[in-house]
Amino acid sequence: MASEGAHGGPQSSGDYIQHHLQNLQVCKVDGEWVWNHCAGNPMAINVDSMFFSVLLGLIFAWMFGSVARKASSGKPTKMQAFVEIIIDFIDTSVKDTFHGKSKLIAPLGLTIFVWVFFMNLMDLIPVDWLPKMGMLVGVPYLKVVPTTDVNITFGMSISVFFLIIFYTVANKGVRGFIAELTLHPIAPPTRGMGLIAAPLIIAFNFILESVSLLAKPLSLSLRLFGNMFAGELIFILIAMLGIWQLPLHFAWAVFHVLIVTLQAFIFMMLTVVYLSLASEEH
Predict the structure, then answer these.
(1) Is residue 259 part of a domain?
(2) Is residue 263 one of the residues assigned to a domain?
(3) Total structural domains in the chain?
(4) Which end of the chain is more exposed for a tag (fewer CB within 10 A), N or C?
């Protein structure tokens, strides 16, 4: 724990927690870019979250690309065998879930699972290590787990949202997309006196289905963010114990590995499920 708080005195528990929950931010104020004075600025950029998410994405691409270039059918390395297990697992999961025809879904599922797993895995690094290293080079704040930043999880879920719309329109056309929003779950009457109520039913369907559509990226994002943020907060509370933190940190880390893996798998599977629904005729 750092020895000084925000006002120069001894650092309190609240100061310690707040420091670890603060992102390294940059924003524009009065036409000039400033660091860490972005409270309430919706256009602030969380530089640390962006840096670590891009870095981990590049590590994933380099690692799997390197294995692919050196792949051998005769005597595979342990790393190749490990990567093949992951690929077979994702491929089987996608085939069991996605019932359409697309060459994008399996690579997308692999990318989401491994990338989110790598970002989640950063939570296992002791909370003081990287921030203290950052302070040595003049970086006052450093959050190293991208998935504890709701901006990152929303960014990924919004990408999935656009893919849902794309696959729906591509497989069912614009008319089919509009029909899904307006003709379900209550089919409007097409004859007789019921025609008077048809506009009201269509409007009700549109509101209901729009909420359902928008809830997909929202729940996808908040589920991942909430679970990882809670896990990080527990690590921060454990770190406040000082030298007595090691047994608890190890115990929670062992359990947290399951959460890290499970959240990556859930995000991947829900993405595949949503895209499968977008590709199917109801």
Answers:
(1) yes
(2) yes
(3) 1
(4) C
Contact status, residue 142 vs residue 168, Cβ threshold 8 Å: no
Q: Answer whether residue 178 is part of any domain.
A: yes
Question: For residues 13 and 2, what is the distance between their CA atoms, to the nearest angstrom?
Answer: 10
> What confidence tier does 151 reach under pLDDT thresholds 50, 70, 90?
very high
Q: Of these residues, 49, 157, 227, 279, which one is catalytic? A: 227
66 noted as active-site residue: no
| C-alpha–C-alpha distance, residues 82 and 142, integer Å | 32
72 is an active site residue: no
State which residues form the domain around 196.
Answer: 48-279
Would you state the structure tokens that stand for residue 123, as one six-digit string? Answer: 């939570």
**Is 227 one of the annotated active-site residues of the chain?**
yes
Catalytic residue (choose from 12, 66, 210, 219) = 219
Place of tokens 């708080």: 5
pLDDT in tens, 184-236: 888 887 776 556 788 899 999 999 999 999 999 999 999 999 999 999 999 99
Kind of pairing between the strands at 45-46 and 25-29: antiparallel
Lowest mean pLDDT among 4-8, 66-70, 109-113, 139-143: 4-8
Residue 249: which H helix or E strand, with range?
A: helix 245-279
